[in-house]
Amino acid sequence: MINMKKLTKTDFILYKDCTKNVWLKWHMPDEYKKFEISEFEKALGVMGIEVENEARKLFPNGILVEGRDEKAQALTKKLIAEKTPVIFQAVFSTDKYLAAADVLKWNDEAGMYDLYEIKMSSTDDEDEEEDDKPRKVNKKKERQFEHDISFQTNVAKLCGINFNKKYLLRLNRDYVRYGALNLNKLFEETDKTEILNPTFLSATLTEMESAYTYLSNTNMPAGHCDCFYKGRSAHCTTFSLSNPDAVGYTVHDLNRIGNSKNVLRALLDEGILNIEDVSESDERLKPSKAKKGEPEKKARKQNQVKVYRTKEPMIDYDAIRSELSSLIFPLYFLDYETYPTAIPPFDGYHPYQHIVFQYSLHILTEDMKLTHEELLVIEGDPAGQIVAGLRKNIGNVGSVISWYKKFENSRNKELAKLVPNEAEFLLGLVARTYDLMDIVENQHYVHHGFKGSSSIKKVQPVLVPHLAYKELVVRSGTDAIESYRQIVKGEITGKDLEQKKKDMLTYCKYDTEVMYEIWKFFKNLIQ
Fold first, then answer.
1. Does the pLDDT of residue 204 top 80, yes or no?
2. Regarding beta strands 86-93 and 63-64, do their DSSP bridges make them parallel or antiparallel, or are they unpaired?
3. Which domains occur in the chain, in start order?
4. Is the pTM value of this prediction over 0.90?
5. Residues 361, 471: contact at Cβ < 8 Å?
6. Do residues 90 and 73 make contact, with C-beta atoms less than 8 angstroms apart?
7. DSSP per residue, 205-267
8. Per-residue model confidence (pLDDT) at position 39
9. 451-465 per-position pLDDT tens digit
10. What 3-state DSSP class applies to 490?
11. CA 365, CA 163: separation in Å to the nearest integer?
């Protein structure tokens, strides 16, 4: 059978991550579609289009090539032959490959086109970096972008077109909006020409050939997919289809096993797959030695295996008592819902800065009286109203409790910049915040039902099973994000809008109610 399907740059990048996943996408599309991406992931695609449309404004009078068919390919050839100054989505196709270039800009001096690849990623993907720390480069993603540009360059070359310079164009995380968008500052340009040298391009072409050969085989590849040797969070879309023996509670779920790839591989190669097959005395599960001056590292993996075997939780009563006794009443159980939009819509925001649009607050007094406050803002910049609500609801004394306080505290620091007259109050909240997750994260309470995780979604079903997220309409942070996006974009109106707002408030209220119930569980445990 002749395979008429062509390898795109998207599938090539997916192939480099997990070969079998893309084979299933090519040859078993109906099965692949069963693993449909979420509404939020689809929204990211919409966000990507918005970023590209803004970036195109940097290249006036560009001609857009629509589609990927023969007509689009013919138009591309015509525009290139005419030395059209700027071309958007130029299409290059061979019998094996198909690529579209985001922007081609004619370079008179070189007598060739420069290539610009637009990415919705920012120059820093480390969301929680503190302002006084240097930006980190996501090396894996950077190399992925380079292979992306290299793929396009190779396909164009096979079509007889050589590019001059190759640029990566993406959002500049350091840009802060004031007034109209300054596109020259919003986007940052990185010259990748030197990195994408002939040796790199040749190596990529060899990989492209291998990918096409692999994907052209109509027989399903035997065995596990490439993700079999990765931690659970790094698994591909179709992992359960390719690895039906590894969908239960396996070594892939060992705490932070993704950072111990050699250990994971060794266990799997020895046939140790399920948690019950793991020995808690296995030396490989022991934590590395702490550096001089650092506290001793927790035996997380060993504890995880031990509680699974005994089905009895490990409890450090003294540590839990010490943690909770440090809290000052009234207790404020606080949770934010936020929207990290790529293009900053309001003054004072940078790309992907979280817009805090909602909070839930359960307040517990020393006499055990529990009340609830909440606020959802869907019009304009919510910062001022959110801070005013917090100022009204939170007194000057009392501990603020969150789950993974790093997130809430980062938002408080950002809000302090957006509403500077309340900076002292907001930074005070940071100093007063206690992370309830620490009891689980620091191994003071280890339960086999957590499966090595300290996520509230894993802890809640074990400690407070009467509160079930699955019963909610909006049941996760990503659902809340998508709901906010739909509302502000006008995609939900009328009665549907009012119901959606109720669903969002119910979900956020659940988060703080769950925190209160978990606190109460631990409090009762030490009495």
1. yes
2. parallel
3. 7-216 (3.90.320), 248-311 (no CATH), 319-525 (3.30.420)
4. yes
5. no
6. no
7. HHHHHHHHHHHH--SPPPS--GGGGS-GGG--TTHHHH-GGGSSSBGGGSTTGGG-HHHHHHH
8. 67
9. 999 999 999 999 999
10. coil
11. 67
Q: Which two tokens stand for residue 459?
A: 């802890």
Residue 41 has pLDDT above 90, yes or no: no
Residue type, 354: H
Token readout for 138 is 């996501």
CA distance linking residue 484 with residue 112, whole number of Å: 45
In terms of phi and psi (left: phi > 0; alpha: psi -120 to 50; beta: otherwise), the region of 179 is: left
Please give the full DSSP string across 53-90, using - where no structure is assigned.
HHHHTTSTTPEEPP-SSHHHHHHHHHHHHTT-SEEEEE
Per-residue DSSP letter, 474: S
How many residues are recorded in the chain?
527
Identify residue 438 by its one-letter amino acid code. D
Q: Is the pLDDT of residue 137 over 80?
A: no
When pLDDT is cut at 50, 70 and 90, the band that residue 130 belongs to is very low
Q: State the distance between the two ends of the chain, measured CA to CA, in whole angstroms.
A: 72
Summarised one tens digit per residue, pLDDT across range 467-521 is: 888 788 998 888 999 999 999 999 999 999 999 999 999 999 999 999 999 999 9
Pairwise CA distance, residues 143 & 148, whole Å: 9
Name the β-bridge partners of 122. 171
Q: Are 457 and 424 in contact (CB under 8 A)?
A: no
Q: 7, exposed or middle or buried, with CB in 10 Å at 0-12, 13-18, 19+?
A: buried
Six token digits for residue 28: 């078993």
| pLDDT score of 35 | 85
Residue closest to 362 by CA, chosen among 135, 517, 489: 517
Q: How far apart are CA 201 and CA 147, in angstroms?
A: 8
